[in-house]
Amino acid sequence: MYKLILILLIFSLTLISCKTTISSIEAFTPLENKVITEQLGETEGKDSVYSIFLLQPFFLYNMFGKMNMQKAIREAIDKKDADTIINVNCYTKTYYFLLFSKTDFIEKGDAVKIANSPKKR
Predict the structure, then answer these.
(1) 32 in helix, strand or coil?
(2) What pTM did the predictor assign?
(3) Angle (nearest 5°) at CA 56 between 95 and 7
(4) Do 82 and 28 meet the contact criterion of CB atoms below 8 Å apart?
(5) Cβ-count burial of 85 within 10 angstroms (0-12 exposed, 13-18 middle, 19+ buried)?
(6) Where do the structural domains in the chain lie, given as residue ranges?
(7) For residue range 18-29, what is the model confidence (pLDDT) as tens digits?
(8) Which among 86, 104, 87 is positioned nearest to 95, based on CA atoms?
(9) pLDDT (tens digit, 9 = 90+) per residue, 2-43?
């Protein structure tokens, strides 16, 4: 019976996760004097970082990576060959395992093509 409880406890510790919303913004690129010419649909970009004992010492950055939000944004834009993303939601999702954790920075939004607006005379 104790082995079963221990196995269930260990298994439950490997499935703990947390989601935190960072921000919601209208667009990554200022849309002043711009016109949306084409909507390409929803897109998503992600970057991950790993840590041991919930710590990520500076000397481990090269081994495990560090959070790069620009990489996630660029991935989302490149997936749809878009100019920018509008209606953006950014959040992190962290998965905790026994000795390490994985944190994902996720960016979701609508990919669009933009052009300069016609000048008024």
Answers:
(1) coil
(2) 0.68
(3) 40
(4) no
(5) buried
(6) 2-116
(7) 667 677 766 667
(8) 104
(9) 888 777 766 666 666 666 767 776 666 777 788 888 999 999
